[in-house]
Task: inverse folding
């Protein structure tokens, strides 16, 4: 089984107006790490016009930090090739899939993002809610499990924590203590 632990950081929550600012993937097949990939993605001026200031603040976007970032039309083919044949895994992974698909189409990048998904939020609801977790956000999970928030709200940091969460909870019997 080839799994792609992914995350995107975006300029907002609406796929029709928001741009992907950052993408990361950790590709694992049959338990073996194949590749890790992360990239910033330069938004267009139109995409920045629709950007939510709070989203830019959370993601640390500044024109200077993204000055040399490639545009989606350049990195899109790499993303599609990287994810080919994978099951997407992430925390609220449907959001990432929709954002990627929308942005790739908007920028004329040919190809498809895989549609098979495993959402770590579902694993959290199955395994951690019975233990007292009240919210399924990745930050809430980090707090609940005592994980560091260093790297939170970066695509690679969130992809790594989604993988860590998957490794902790996937196909485990329900338990009262972790």
Result:
């Amino acid at each position: 089984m080839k799994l792609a632990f992914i995350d995107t950081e975006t300029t907002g929550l609406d796929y029709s107006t928001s741009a992907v600012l950052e993408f990361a993937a950790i590709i694992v097949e049959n338990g073996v790490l194949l590749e890790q990939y992360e990239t910033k993605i330069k938004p267009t001026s139109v995409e920045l016009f629709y950007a939510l200031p709070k989203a830019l603040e959370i993601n640390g976007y500044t024109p200077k930090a993204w000055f040399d970032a490639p545009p989606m039309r350049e990195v899109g083919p790499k993303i599609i090739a990287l994810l080919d044949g994978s099951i997407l895994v992430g925390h609220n992974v449907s959001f990432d899939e929709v954002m990627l698909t929308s942005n790739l189409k908007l920028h004329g990048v040919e190809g498809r993002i895989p549609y098979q998904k495993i959402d770590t939020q579902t694993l959290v609801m199955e395994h951690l809610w019975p233990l007292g977790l009240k919210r399924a956000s990745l930050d809430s999970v980090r707090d609940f499990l005592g994980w560091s928030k260093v790297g939170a709200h970066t695509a690679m940091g969130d992809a790594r924590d989604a993988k860590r969460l998957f490794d902790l909870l996937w196909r485990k019997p329900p338990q009262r203590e972790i």
Remarks:
- The radius of gyration is 16 Å.
- The helical segments are 45-49, 53-59, 72-83, 93-106, 120-127, 138-145, 155-169.
